[in-house]
Amino acid sequence: MEASKLSIPEKPLKLLKTVKVKQYSFYAGFLLLIFFFTSCSTPYYSTVNNMNEQPASLVLANGSKLNGKISVRTFDNYSSVSRIQFSEGASNIYKDYFVKDIKSVYINGSTYCVKIIIGSNFWGGSAVRFVKRLTQPGGRMDLYQNEVVNKNSQSGKSETVTEYYLQLPGDNRNEIYNLESKKFTPDFNIKMSSYVQDCPVLAVKIKEKDRDYFYPFIVNNGELRRKAVLLQIINDYNNCK
Question: How is the chain classified by DSSP, letter by letter?
């Protein structure tokens, strides 16, 4: 007696093939989803306003200090930062903090503060961003540094450009101004001397372009020279009696 052959009806066979296709699609989609979240959570650092999962210390406006990892994301060099994500200790659970609740961030050996920076290519003329503090806190005049990443039109490579911003005496303590803006140039000696006129000796040195107080634009090592001049002016002004 011949053994009977098992046959599968055509309709169930088509159904089985459909189920397998759906399973493969599901697994492919699942793997793609895993890849997406993994790539999004990869640690990286471009600037302090565009980084992910970097070791940092966060000081809140209420005085609390948190240690852990920080993520800050902006789409370009000119948009505002409204909030950051921070995870304490070794935890991978991130919590949102709005910039109004943040006093400063300590990362890569430097302190960064939240400021309204004015006088660059920002939408509406200003933006809220983290900037590096270059002077001691508590002075009437302070210097900050902002970094932007631009692509070189010739080489196609990304380059980091440094911008300097000044917090003027008597102004809103949250606002800082681009040193290359019309608020300071041209005629730096005239404009800057007027901002420090309550310190007459310093004002005269700036107005008369004293060597240590002259703000050059086209000289060798111009950026270093300009930074040194600004720090000299700020130090004299903050210690003026």
Answer: -PPPPP---HHHHHHHHHHHHHHHHHHHHHHHHHHHHHHHT--EEEETTEEEEEEEEEEETTS-EEEEEEEE--SSSSSPP-EEEEEETT----EEEEGGGEEEEEETTEEEEEEEEESSS-GGGEEEEEEEE-S-TT-SSEEEEEEEEEE-TTT--EEEEEEEEEE-TTS-TTEEEETTSTTT-SSHHHHHHHHTTTSHHHHHHHHTT-GGG---SSSTTHHHHHHHHHHHHHHHHHT--
Integer Cα distance of 44 and 53 in angstroms: 7
CA dist 79 and 102 (Å) reads: 18
- Cα 207-210-213 angle, rounded to 5 deg: 80
Single-letter amino acid, residue 38: T
pTM listed for this prediction: 0.78
pLDDT in tens, 109-157: 999 999 999 976 665 678 899 999 999 988 999 999 998 888 776 777 8
**Rounded mean pLDDT of the chain?**
82
Distances (CA, A) of 90 to 2, 17, 66, 70: 69, 46, 12, 12
